[in-house]
Amino acid sequence: MAVPPLLTLNNSVTIPQLGLGMYQVRPDQVAKVVATAFEAGYRSIDTAAMYGNEAEVGTAVRESGLPREDVFVTTKVWNTDHGYDNTLRAFDRSAEALGLGPVDLYLIHWPKPELDRYVETWRALELLLNEGRVRAIGVSNFGIDHLRRLLDETDVVPVVNQVELHPWQQQAPLREFHAEHGIATEAWSPLARGRNLNDQVITALAAKYGKTPAQLVLRWHLQQGIIAIPKSATPSRIRENTEVFDFELAEDDLLALAELDS
Ligand SMILES: NC(=O)C1=CN([C@@H]2O[C@H](COP(=O)(O)OP(=O)(O)OC[C@H]3O[C@@H](n4cnc5c(N)ncnc54)[C@H](OP(=O)(O)O)[C@@H]3O)[C@@H](O)[C@H]2O)C=CC1
Ligand SMILES: O=C1CO[C@H](CO)[C@@H](O)[C@@H]1O
C-alpha cells in the first residue's frame, strides 16, 4: 500500500498529490471503488455535483473507518448554479449529500465566461471559506484571463486550478502563471482517458522502468509537482495507479515526454 505524499496549498492546507477521479463512476459502483482505493492508499476523492455520486462518496468515506481528517474530498459547483445565491444553495445541496462536515476543497467547475458570473460565484466560495464550511477554494478549467480577473477583483487566491493536462496537453503557459501566483496545478484526465497509452514513447519508457504505461504517465505528473486524479472503476487499475512512488524518471526521459505535447 502506497499512501501518496501531501502537497501544501497556498493556504497551508495539504492535499494528497494523487487522488481518485469519480467522473462516470456509477452510484452503485462507488462503495466498492472507494473502499478499494482507500485500501490501496488513496486518501483523496474528486467528485462534483455534476457527477451524480456525491451522496455515495460521502457514505463510502463515512463507512471507511478512516478518521475524517485523513481524507480529502473535493467537489464542484456546476455551470447551471453560477451566481452568488445559486452557488450558496448548490453548496448546501453538495454538503448535505456528502454529509462529511466541512468540504476540503470546493471548486468552480467551469468559468462559463458567457454567463459572466464567475466573479460573484467566487465571492460565494469566499463566504463559505470564511464561514469554515470549506477548508479551501479553487477553480477548474480557468484560463489565464479568468484567473487574472479573480486575482484583480477578489480577495482569496484560488488554491488550485484543475485543468485537462497530460503529456499530450501540457499547458505550459498556464502552469507558469500558476507558479507565479502560488496556484497549484491539478490535472484532470491525467491519463488522457487511457486513449494514448499505447503511444510508442510511453510504452518504450514504461518497459525501461518496468512499469505500466499508466504508471509512467502518472509519474510524469508527480515529478512536475502536478496533482493527478486518475479515474478507474477497475480494482486492479485503482491499485496499479498508486504504484508510482518507487521509481524516478531521468531528466532525458522527461525531455522525451515533453516532446509529446501537441
Ligand atoms: N474539472 C473537470 O472539468 C473535469 C474533471 N475530471 C476529473 O478528473 C478525473 C480523471 O479524469 P478522467 O476524464 O476520468 O480520465 P483519466 O485520464 O483518469 O482516465 C480514465 C480512463 O482511463 C482508464 N484507466 C484508468 N487507469 C488505467 C490504467 N492503469 N490502465 C489503463 N487504463 C486505465 C479508466 O478505465 P476504467 O475505469 O474502466 O478502469 C478510464 O476509462 C475524473 O474522474 C474527474 O474526477 C475529469 C474531466 C473534467
Ligand atoms: O468534470 C467533467 C467530466 O467530464 C466532462 C466531459 O468531458 C466534463 O464536461 C466535465 O467538466
From TrEMBL:
Gene3D superfamilies: NADP-dependent oxidoreductase domain. Residues 19-260 form the NADP-dependent oxidoreductase domain. Keywords: NADP, Oxidoreductase. Belongs to the aldo/keto reductase family. This is Aldo/keto reductase. Pfam families: Aldo_ket_red (PF00248). The keyword Hydrolase does not apply.
